[in-house]
Design brief:
Blueprint (H helix, E strand, L loop, with lengths): L9 E6 L4 H19 L5 E6 H13 L5 E3 L7 H7 L6 H9 L12 E5 L1 E2 L10 H5 L3 E2 L2 H13 L4 E5 L8 H6 L41 H7 L11 H11 L4 E4 L9 H9 L3 E6 L7 H6 L6 H14 L4 E8 L6 H14 L3 E6 L17 H24 L5 E8 L7 E4 L11 E4 L9 E9 L4 E8 L1
Iron/sulfur cluster (SF4) binds next to helix 5.
Length: 467
């Protein structure tokens, strides 16, 4: 936990329950907050989020020192509960930003922010517990997102990172349910909804991934969704992007969690045509062997992945592609793993996030046979990382000698070296550019830089002018 919580009246820990590692980190953060309370450095500790949604009762039994546990479906209770316990000193100034959960900007990099465009997930990937915790997909209305983006822009944000569970799925729920009218408050987190563990009438894990390619196509569904937003069977992501382009001037819009099968030609053309939608895409593939993808209950196969990469690279030659893969899924054979390595070598993603499979309680994969032993997983991870290191270095070296726009994240240190990022480097997940002789560089500003050196993750460069 960072020193930023020192002196806080209440420490609110937002937990994650995605994978084992995240669960452990969340528990560690709660324990650290409890230590602060025991030392008298904070008055109360609240634990919220996914982990609490799933394991609230167990956590409450194990951690009685925590004052309040609130699952995802109870986030609305935070302010009233704090107020009732006399923990809000100046409620008038404080409450509005908590009751309508505006994003809290990082104090170190307030010029970059996430924009969460939807909540929940309609897929049913066999390894994933997210739909159990967060319920079915619900898209936040475009108006609400534009308003949030404009508020963030007014606060100085110049890079907006669009996130969700599957960003390509944005608006597809409206084909099923109709566009919500005037009910946007219901879409903010903090209220239960279908599919979420603990929600009234929760039907459990949604399994519509197999229907992903066959989303509703009937004209009347589209008509019901409203012509002004131009939704199609592909959803409303293009309409959202157009609205953000037209009604904000935020220069960098970055797309995360773009599922391969959800990427369609119209979207590719839009990204290619609009410089403000960055030539950067995070496209999780999870594996490269058809047999494993099928057992993972992913809608894509190798052919789909290859086709989407081809469409994207043909239309956007400068594209930087990031992906995520899981190593050691139950039943992964040596041949499956080789197929994954071959696909990564063939497609040459600029960046790959690799995770060793971990069993997540309540998911279909948790009871699958043929678990891959940990030493085999580790060995495969090492091999994969070796392969990807070479690819990443080669991809990064291609930038050497070129002039590019760089967003400065950190002012120069005593050696005159500032830190920034190119279009191809997302905040906190990718590498950075070290800008030498950059005493004048100011965080949140764009500069033009010539790239002089490359490593697997990071670049070095010198400023040659304003962007
Ligand atoms: S798409 Fe799959 S991995 Fe992603 S949140 Fe949904 S179920 Fe989980």
């Amino acid at each position: 936990m960072s020193g930023g919580v020192e002196g806080a009246d209440v420490v609110v820990v937002n937990t994650c329950g995605f994978i084992e590692m995240a669960k452990e980190e969340s528990i560690e953060a709660i324990l650290e907050a409890v230590r602060l309370k025991e030392e008298g450095r904070t008055r109360a500790v609240v634990a919220m989020g996914c982990l609490v949604q799933r394991y609230g009762e167990e956590l409450a039994a194990e951690l009685p020192e925590v004052d309040l546990f609130l699952g995802l479906a109870e986030a609305d209770r935070l302010v009233p509960e704090l107020r009732a316990r006399g923990l809000l000193d100046s409620p008038a100034a404080f409450v509005p930003t908590m009751e309508r959960p505006l994003r809290v900007l990082s104090t170190a990099t307030p010029h970059t922010s996430f924009l969460k465009i939807s909540e929940g997930c309609d897929h049913g990937c066999a390894f994933c517990a997210i739909p159990l915790m967060r319920g079915k997909h619900r898209s936040t209305p475009i108006e609400a997102l534009v308003r949030e983006a404009r508020e963030l822009e007014a606060a100085g944000v110049v890079e907006l990172n669009l996130v969700s569970q599957d960003t390509t799925w944005y608006g597809r729920d409206w084909l099923r349910t109709g566009i919500p009218a005037g009910s946007e408050e219901a879409y903010f987190m903090g209220r239960p909804f279908a599919g979420m563990a603990g929600a009234v009438g929760a039907p459990g894990l949604a399994r519509v991934a197999d229907r992903a390619e066959a989303a509703p196509t009937r004209a009347e569904s589209v008509g019901r969704a409203g012509a002004s937003l131009e939704p199609s069977r592909h959803g409303a992501l293009p309409a959202l992007l157009r609205a953000l382009l037209d009604r904000t001037e935020i220069p960098w819009l970055r797309l995360f969690y773009m599922y391969p099968s959800g990427i369609h030609r119209g979207l590719v053309e839009l990204i290619a045509a609009e410089a403000r939608i960055l030539s950067y895409l995070d496209m999780p593939i999870q594996h490269g062997a058809d047999a494993v993808l099928k057992r993972m209950r992913r809608p894509e196969r190798q052919a789909t992945i290859r086709q989407r990469v081809r469409w994207l690279r043909e239309a956007i030659p400068e594209l930087v592609l990031r992906t995520t893969v899981i190593v050691g899924f139950p039943g992964e054979t040596d041949e499956d793993f080789e197929a994954l390595l071959e696909l990564l070598e063939e497609l040459r993603f600029d960046r790959v996030g690799a995770f060793a499979y971990s069993v997540e309680e309540g998911t279909p994969a948790a009871t699958m046979p043929d678990r891959v032993p940990d030493p085999v997983k580790r060995e495969r991870m090492e091999r994969l990382l070796d392969v990807q290191r070479a690819v990443a270095l080669e991809r990064n070296e291609a930038w050497v000698g070129r002039e590019v726009d760089v967003l400065v994240d950190r002012a120069a240190d005593e050696d005159g070296v500032a830190v920034g990022r190119t279009v191809g480097q997302a905040h906190e997940v990718d590498g950075v550019v070290y800008l030498e002789g950059a005493a004048e560089a100011r965080p949140g500003r764009f500069v033009r830089a010539r790239i002089g050196g490359a490593e697997e993750d990071d670049l070095t460069g010198v400023i040659v002018g304003d962007a």
